[in-house]
């Protein structure tokens, strides 16, 4: 190992040690991303809620749904008797869940057979809005905290006040014939509906507009867990199909270096190693690369010669000579490529040429007739030359 390389490695080790020392001495910043991921322990993850589902539903099985609702429940649908082979409650908690109209229709079908759907969100596909006949609005004037309450007097003591991460969404219209109001949210002096139950077939939809209430930050604050517990008490004690934020395609698409990139210190160490390696290769190659003498390739003068001869004939207006040479070269091409006798250019020759070349019979006949005509004609003009040239070029390229 050369002395220069030892210096480079020493500098690199010192840099890595310095970066690691700085990173480990710096407090880890709080990640306030609203992931609603059941595996995340960040403030707005749902790790605590997901872990408590077994206590909230002790007689129920918790089943993660790692694909879309359509993909999941369509596999349980029996086309023979038009029923579902499973029962339970589908649950999704997210500001903007991955629910398209196809999955929304699947959830409507699943609910119609006596199952429950719980959605805590700020966004709903048009299929749900139209079918369940409710509308949501946004109170852009809202600022500060909000009080979340229940209409059932039994849960009066389970009301909570939230100050962080609130949304301004509320129900502006509901179908009062099939819908029951379960909860409200109070902004300043205004009270809005934020939790409803609506019937669909033999089942029910429970729609909640404050998913932030089920995140780690709020469940671990004071006694806020009582609110989530009261909301869950409306659901039947059956299998819980929890819509996971860790979809199958996302797992497959993660990089093998995902752990390195998830740790700031390791991520910057990786980038620094790549940069220094690249710089070392560049400078090392620059020092040892020998001068390569540039050799000019031999110039192909065939094209230039052909152009010169062509221009000579064209400028002398010797069209007969050019036409003769074009025909001679073309017939020689036919003999060489298709092995046809070109002495007699009759219908039999045209048919054989069309078959062997794969060209249209009528186009081939026009070209051969044009050649026969020009061979017999004297004093050909520039138009004859251009038409012949175009016809032959079309034969070559078409």
List the helices and strands and how they pair.
Layout: H1 3-25, H2 47-56, E1 62-65, H3 69-74, E2 77-78, E3 83-84, E4 89-93, H4 101-112, E5 116-120, H5 126-132, E6 135-138, E7 146-150, E8 160-162, E9 169-173, E10 179-187, E11 190-200, E12 203-208, H6 216-219, H7 225-232, E13 240-243, H8 248-253, H9 258-262, H10 264-288, H11 302-315, H12 319-338, H13 347-357, H14 361-376, H15 382-397
Helix pairs in contact: 1-10, 4-5, 12-15, 13-14, 14-15
Could you name the CATH topology of the largest domain? Answer: Rossmann fold
Number of domains: 3
| Strand runs, count | 13
* Proper CATH architecture of the largest domain: 3-Layer(aba) Sandwich
Helical/strand content category: alpha/beta
Number of helices: 15
- Rg, rounded, reads 40 Å
Strand content: 15-25%
Helix content: 40-55%
Taken in chain order, the helices and strands follow as: HHEHEEEHEHEEEEEEEHHEHHHHHHHH
Main sheet: strand order: 1-13-4-5-12-11-10-7-8
Q: Mind summarizing the main beta sheet?
A: 9 strands, mixed
CATH class placement of the largest domain: Alpha Beta
């Amino acid at each position: 190992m050369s002395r220069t390389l030892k210096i480079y490695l020493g500098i690199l080790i010192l840099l890595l040690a310095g970066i690691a020392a700085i990173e480990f001495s710096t407090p880890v910043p709080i990640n306030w991303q609203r992931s609603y991921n059941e595996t995340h322990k960040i403030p707005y993850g749902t790790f605590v809620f997901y872990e408590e589902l077994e206590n909230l539903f002790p007689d129920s099985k918790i089943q993660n749904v790692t694909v879309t609702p359509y993909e999941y429940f369509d596999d349980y649908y029996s086309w023979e008797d038009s029923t579902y082979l499973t029962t339970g409650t589908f649950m999704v908690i997210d500001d903007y869940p991955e629910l398209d109209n196809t999955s929304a229709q699947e959830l409507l079908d699943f609910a119609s057979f006596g199952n429950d759907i719980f959605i805590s969100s700020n966004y709903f596909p048009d299929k749900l809005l139209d079918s369940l006949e409710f509308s949501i609005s946004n109170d852009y004037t809202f600022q500060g905290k909000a009080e979340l309450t229940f209409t059932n007097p039994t849960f009066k003591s389970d009301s909570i006040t939230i100050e962080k991460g609130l949304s301004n969404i509320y129900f502006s219209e509901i179908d009062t014939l099939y819908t029951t109001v379960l909860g409200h949210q109070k902004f300043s002096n205004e009270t809005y509906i934020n939790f409803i139950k609506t019937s669909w077939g033999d089942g029910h939809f429970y729609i909640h507009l404050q998913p932030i209430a089920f995140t780690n930050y709020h469940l671990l604050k004071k006694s806020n867990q009582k609110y989530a517990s009261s909301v869950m008490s409306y659901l039947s004690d059956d299998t819980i199909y929890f819509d996971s934020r860790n979809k199958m395609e996302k797992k497959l698409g993660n990089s093998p270096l995902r752990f390195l990139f998830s740790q700031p210190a390791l991520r910057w160490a990786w980038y620094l190693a790549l940069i220094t390696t690249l710089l070392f290769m560049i400078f090392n190659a620059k020092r040892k690369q020998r001068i390569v003498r540039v050799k000019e390739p031999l110039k192909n003068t065939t094209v230039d010669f052909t152009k010169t001869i062509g221009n000579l004939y064209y400028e002398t207006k010797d069209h007969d000579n050019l036409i003769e040479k074009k025909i001679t070269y073309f017939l020689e091409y036919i003999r060489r490529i298709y092995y046809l006798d070109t002495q007699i250019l009759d219908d039999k020759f045209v048919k054989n040429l069309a078959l062997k070349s794969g060209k249209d019979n009528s186009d081939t006949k026009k070209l051969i007739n044009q050649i026969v005509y020009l061979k017999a004609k004297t004093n050909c003009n520039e138009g004859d030359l251009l038409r012949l040239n175009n016809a032959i070029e079309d034969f070559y390229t078409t």
